[in-house]
Amino acid sequence: MKVETKQVTSAVKWSLITEVIVKLISPITNMILARLLVPEAFGIIASITMITTFADMFTDAGFQKYIVQHQFSDHDDQDRYVSVAFWSNFVLSCFLYLVIFFTADKLAVLSGIAGYGNVIRIYSVILLLTSFSSIQYAVYKKKFQYKKLGIIRVTVKLIPLVVTVPLTLWTRSFWALVIGNLTGEAVAAVVLMLWSDQRIKFFYSFSDLKKMFSFCGGSMLETISSWLVSNVSVLIIGQYLGSYYLGLYKTSITTVNQVISIITASTMSVLFATLSQEQDDDSAFRKTIATFQRSMGLFTVPLGVGILVFRKFITLVLLGGQWSEAAIFVGLWGFVMCESVIFADIGSYSMVAKGRPVFVFMSNMIQAVLLSIVLYAIRDRSFVVLAFSSFIVRWQLTATHYGLATKVSGLKMKDLPKELGIYLFAAVIMGVSGWLLLSIIGNSILESLVATIVCVIIYFVILLAFKRTREQILGLVGTLKSKLNRSQA
Question: Tell me: the pLDDT tens digits for 233-282?
Fold first, then answer.
């Protein structure tokens, strides 16, 4: 099925607007909370979230991806499958919540937070709330209703700012995070259900469930492996280094991801929806991937270098002085994650869009095993060793994700946009210039800000020196001017 260009453009526009707003709200909230709560509080929540996300991936069971990717014959066909997915999700959520409720104390010991069983019981109510929202999220994406989805997401993101922060000022406890997260999910569930034109029917079919599971089974493996990649470190660090260093580790990752996702989250969901529609058109499929690599690489390549060079400045501004020990990990993680966006992330989406999530599973499992071995081997070492080890191991995921994508999706190295090489060259010059500036003028907040502005100018000046990237930038500026003129008309 061919996707209309205007439809994709509109989806990207509203997704981008949403992410910019959301990513302004999230860092502000995080900046406040990081200054009010100690790292141990974030470590406790990270351990509990590990448990709930593990259960949540079984309740979703790949239904979201199936709804987005599958080509339904008509509206009645879609209504039937959406209803089956919803009720399957809801029943599984109720069952798993009961399991967690009665085993919470043991789970607390296993995850390194003994004595926090009741917190796990309360926080796990989030499973019941997400069962009402997850399928609806997929329907909104399927229909490219990113304007509605954007308004809902912004509303939900405001909840922590107006609920969690005041509670934190009052309690100075991790309970503020628990209550804030539960409130946000409750609001999301209610608004998504009420505003959606997709009604859930009292209908169930095991034959439809079986058809979905033929896809969801592979997708489920990919989801489980992704969970392992994200949480095997939580389990090991929580057990051997404690909640303090787990808080440093997870909050660093969250902070970096918030910055990067201003670019990626606004485009990746649209990329997946578009690739899913073009899965049978190899030429359009490869062209779409190249377009997204070119547009995202323009910003993610220099962003990764910038986070590495200005890691102390970023950590101080976004987290505060008590998190200075995390600066080295913020820099290293930011660099590897930014550079992997155009390879690992896009490679992963292309494999899933082609209906081959098992290859993502294979790549993720290699990462999970390597990470487990390395982190266990250095469990008694310093946080700096942990930071460098995680940084090195992460490159494997970039290599294998894109390597497998070239086999599964028909991608070739020659299909990589030529602009990527120019981005890298300009970013290296920019990074070296930034390092020299900080060495000369110092690294206080004001000096770092000046150096950052200079580096941005250096990067784009270099790009303007090359015809290919100059045309790209001028085209982007022209598009922005045109949209601005239309909005003022």
Answer: 998 998 888 889 999 999 999 889 888 887 776 677 678 777 877 777 77
Angle at 210 between CA 208 and CA 213, to 5 degrees: 110
pLDDT recorded at residue 489: 53
Measured between alpha carbons, how far is residue 314 from residues 32, 100, 300, 434, 449 in Å? 15, 38, 16, 14, 10
In the three-class reduction of DSSP (H, G, I as helix; E, B as strand; rest coil), residue 362 is classed as helix
Closest to 303 in 3D by CA, of 471, 430, 211: 430
Number of Cβ within 10 Å of residue 303's Cβ equals: 22
Q: Which stretch of DSSP H or E encloses residue 210? A: helix 206-240
d(CA 308, CA 325): 15
Do 295 and 372 meet the contact criterion of CB atoms below 8 Å apart?
Answer: no
> In angstroms, what CA-CA distances link 293 with 131, 364, 420, 423?
33, 21, 8, 11
CA distances from 409 to 215, 323, 405 (A): 17, 42, 5
Which of the two residues, 287 and 118, has the higher pLDDT score? Answer: 118
CA gap 460, 456 in Å, rounded: 6
Q: How far apart are CA 315 and CA 327, in angstroms?
A: 6
What is the amino acid identity at position 384?
A: V
Place of tokens 């499958």: 81
Dig out the tokens for 185 from the structure. Answer: 């999910």
From 20, 10, 8, select the one nearest 264 (Cα to Cα): 20
Number of H helices, E strands in the chain: 20, 0
Asked whether residue 231 carries a pLDDT value surpassing 60, the answer given is yes
SS3 content of the chain, % helix, strand, coil (to 5): 85, 0, 15
Q: Name 223's Cβ contacts closer than 8 Å, sequence gap at least 6.
A: 57, 60, 62
For residue 475, is pLDDT > 50?
yes
Angle (CA) 345-27-60 rounded to 5° is 45
R_g of the chain, CA atoms, integer Å:
22
Q: Is 22 exposed, middle or buried (0-12, 13-18, 19+ CB in 10 A)?
A: buried
Can you tell me the distance from the alpha carbon of 352 to that of 360, in angstroms, rounded to the nearest whole number? 8
d(CA 406, CA 394): 19
| Type of residue at 415 | D
Contact between residue 248 and residue 329 where contact means Cβ atoms under 8 Å apart: yes
What would the pLDDT profile of 86-145 be if each residue is shown by its tens digit? 888 888 889 999 999 999 999 999 888 888 999 999 999 999 988 887 777 777 777 766
Tokens 């020659």, located at residue: 414
User: d(Cα 175, Cα 465) in Å, to the nearest integer?
Assistant: 53
